[in-house]
Write a structure and sequence with these properties.
Blueprint (H helix, E strand, L loop, with lengths): L5 H9 L13 E2 L18 E5 L3 E2 L5 E8 L6 E12 L2 E6 L5 E3 L3 E8 L6 E12 L4 E5 L11 E5 L10 E9 L8 E2 L3 H11 L3 E7 H4 L1 E2 L2 E5 L4 H14 L5 E11 L5 E7 L24 H7 L5 E4 L8 H7 L6 H4 L6 E6 L4 H15 L5 E5 L2 E2 L5 E6 L3 E5 L8 E5 L5 H9 L3 E4 L3 E5 L10 E2 L3 E8 L7 E10 L6 E7 L5 E8 L5 E9 L10 E4 L2 E3 L2
Parallel strand pairs: 3-11, 12-14, 12-22, 14-17, 19-20, 20-21, 28-35
Antiparallel strand pairs: 1-13, 2-4, 4-8, 5-6, 5-7, 5-9, 9-10, 9-11, 12-25, 15-16, 17-18, 18-19, 23-24, 25-26, 26-34, 27-29, 29-32, 30-31, 30-33, 33-34, 33-35
């Protein structure tokens, strides 16, 4: 099946639709595509070259700086030199990426240079200067070779303390995209790059969930589909090979477009399924034909029993033009009640209206008796330090530090550090969501019981930890929800004075069907001067 012709795609581009596909999901900016006979101020006869780095690194770890070039096969060039300069207070050091010129002739080229941070703490500016010769003379750039961007240094927080952790808890990125996402306006980072940067950030794993309408493309042409799904197969193989070596674990998944109860397009994450699931309704591939192949119910019926299925960014605002031209909607109450759904992702990189509205929808579903865990992610497409995205097609880019890889983290209580164990934990609701502190519940035997069904009476222990980076603990809240009730009740609250580690016991005597869950908030942290939080999936009683 051929994709929509260039005219149709470009009309969507010019109306400002494609830069927003998927919603709130920024990627690196593709600048070479332009409609025939139309001028593009952004296009230039050079590969896109972008420098990136994680927004934070663990104490004692070097800063891994990514230098990535795309489209060298279409626009060959020579990378003459590349030097990263780190500045922190009165300290300054320079690290060279290469010792000799590099010919950029491949579609993808990338390297990671690790810059030592000895003696550096807090915010560090990383300024990457490079020179490119694409046949019209050498040109020098800072941090990217785009037009209209700031070219400002990357900012990395070198922490004095590791990410807060509790034994048995793995921390990772729950929703991210790779270079398998690549089209006329944007592209993501290769999984190997995500693995290299995520490890120094402090992550144990990352879920790679590219869109179904990108994974059905030909490997060498995003304008045409291939019924053999080579991109899906190649991505799975690449992740399998990477996981054979020690390091951050990658979980292969898919973000499937499907139809909600009203027939509108929504997104569903499927983790750990070997089968590809089609979903092209909001791909802008078929002019004004937005019906996706599968409904939510049909998707849930066909996924593997070993897969984890998560409702993605359930309450993010959908712009009017996306609703009109791409048929996009949001997860409705009837969709969240479908059997086979394991968790909800309402924390999508920001604690905003989508977070608050999504948490309310999650609580309502829990009160109605649906066993749904929590999943967090950033919908990151590379963009470890900042994203650069089209704002005005062919004219201008915009930058932001939102939805960075690993900023909001998924915690899983996994039996081991493997992709299978991480998927099993997500499917079993053994999850927490955090942008800093962590918390778990344990039974009287010291066994973590988040996501489980227990019988009352029971004795539980609540444990929470934080750090100076994210702020000392301010309060621990235990919420209780009786099944069939209209609202939760606050069962217990502890006000804390900034402790880094805390634990206390809780006795559950209520024999009626109910659940409890925990929320933790911190005092303002030294990284960004704001409070951070953690939410756990529930523990169910008498269900």
């Amino acid at each position: 099946r051929c994709r929509t012709c260039a005219l149709e795609r470009t009309l969507l581009l010019m109306f400002g639709i494609l830069p927003l596909v998927p919603p709130l999901a920024p990627l690196y900016a593709e600048i070479h595509y332009r409609f025939p006979y139309f001028m593009s101020f952004l296009s230039k006869p050079e590969p896109e070259v972008v420098a990136d780095a994680p927004h934070r690194v663990e104490p004692g770890q070097p800063i891994p700086i990514l230098l990535l070039a795309k489209d060298g096969d279409r626009h060959p060039a020579v990378l003459r030199d590349a030097v990263a300069t780190l500045r922190s207070g009165d300290q300054e050091r320079c690290i060279a990426f290469t010792s000799a010129p590099i010919h950029l002739r491949d579609h993808w080229w990338w390297t990671v240079c690790e810059a030592p941070t000895d003696g550096m703490h807090g915010w560090v500016d990383c300024d990457v200067r490079f020179t490119i010769d694409a046949g019209h003379g050498a040109r020098a750039y800072a941090n990217d070779n785009y037009r209209t961007t700031s070219h400002a240094p990357l900012r990395v927080f070198v922490s004095r303390e590791p990410l807060p952790r509790i034994p048995g808890l793995l921390l990772g990125e729950g929703h991210s995209h790779s270079h398998a996402t690549s089209d006329q306006v944007e592209f993501g980072a290769p999984p190997g790059a995500a693995r290299a940067l995520g490890k120094r950030l402090g992550l144990d794993f990352a879920c790679i969930t590219d869109h179904s309408y990108d994974l059905d493309d030909r490997g060498d042409d995003y304008l045409h589909n291939d019924p053999l799904f080579p991109k899906w197969k190649d991505l799975r193989h690449e992740i399998e090979v990477l996981n054979e070596s020690l390091g951050m674990v990658l979980v292969c998944g898919e973000e499937v477009t499907c139809r909600n109860a009203s027939g509108r397009n929504i997104h569903c994450l499927v983790l750990g399924d070997e089968q590809f699931h089609p979903g092209s309704g909001d791909s802008a591939e078929r002019w004004l034909r937005t019906r996706s192949e599968l409904s939510v119910e049909e998707l849930l019926d066909r996924v593997s029993p070993n897969a984890a299925v998560i409702a993605a960014h359930i309450r993010e605002r959908v712009p009017f033009l996306q609703r009109l031209l791409l048929g996009r909607g949001r997860w409705e109450d009837n969709d969240l009640s479908r059997r086979g759904l394991h968790a909800i992702q309402f924390w999508n990189g920001a604690t905003d209206h989508g977070f608050e509205s999504g948490r309310s929808a999650w609580v309502q579903a829990l009160l109605e008796g649906h066993r749904l865990g929590i999943l967090a992610g950033n919908d990151a497409h590379g963009n470890f330090n900042r994203f650069r995205q089209l704002s005005v097609p062919f004219v201008a880019l915009r930058e932001s530090d939102h939805q960075l890889f690993g900023r909001v983290r998924l915690g899983v209580l996994a039996s081991e550090r493997s992709d299978r164990a991480i998927v099993d934990a997500a499917r079993s609701r053994k999850t927490i969501a955090t942008d800093g502190p962590v918390a778990v519940l344990s039974d009287s035997n010291g066994r973590h019981c988040v996501g489980e069904m227990l019988q009352a009476p029971a004795s539980l222990t609540i444990e929470a930890r934080s750090s100076s980076e994210f702020g000392g603990l301010a309060e621990v809240l235990v919420w209780k929800g009786h099944l069939g009730s209209k609202s939760e009740e606050l069962l217990q609250r502890w006000n804390l004075d900034g402790a880094r580690a805390w634990r206390d016991d809780l006795t559950v005597e209520d024999l009626r069907p109910h659940y409890i869950r925990v929320e933790v908030r911190t005092h303002p942290g030294e990284q960004d001067g704001r409070s951070h939080r953690c939410l756990t999936s529930p523990v169910w009683f008498g269900v």
